[in-house]
Task: structure prediction
Amino acid sequence: MTPNGFGLTRLSLILGFGVLILVVYLNLSASALQTFLLHVKKDPWGMSHLFLAVYVVMTLLLFPCMLLQVITGAVYGLKYGMLMSWIGTSIGQTIAFLLGRHLFRAPVKSYLTSTWPTFPAIDAAIRHDAWRLVCLLRLSPVIPYNVLNWALALTPVSFLIFTTASCLASLPWTCLFVYVGTFSKDMVSLARGKIRWGS
Result:
């Protein structure tokens, strides 16, 4: 691809991502999310492709990953909820990494250095033991999960190590929050005083 062609492709992707952000934030509301989830709940497998697409987009737009996993558990149950959430998280984090590395490097770097002054230390450490550090960062709440997708794009970690370590290290949190989501109905009933602890 010629330099001009690459520049045009990059500009198109940036504009497309900007339009996506605008559309989501203009239409994102509690009622819209509730309506969408009700449709998914009525036909979970018929809506699974759309649910995954929304999951990936929300991951890219820094929507709390924990909440996405809880919602997935509430809609799909434990076994399939874990599978759906893990697939959505894996795709979302991979796309965010690629976008951060190739399209939005400057703004992401500016945001990270102003928000997390210790980020340069992480960047330096990851040069020595990328695999272990990616796993530890995924398991630690030092940097929010979705922010970390973009942050790691600025480090010298390879794409293969990022995707493999992230997919594996995301499993414990995915299992936990999807499991919590499977109790959503009972938790609501408990909050309303309709279930006793003994039951």
Residues 187-199 have pLDDT under 50 and may be disordered. The radius of gyration is 19 Å. DSSP finds eleven helices and no strands in the chain.
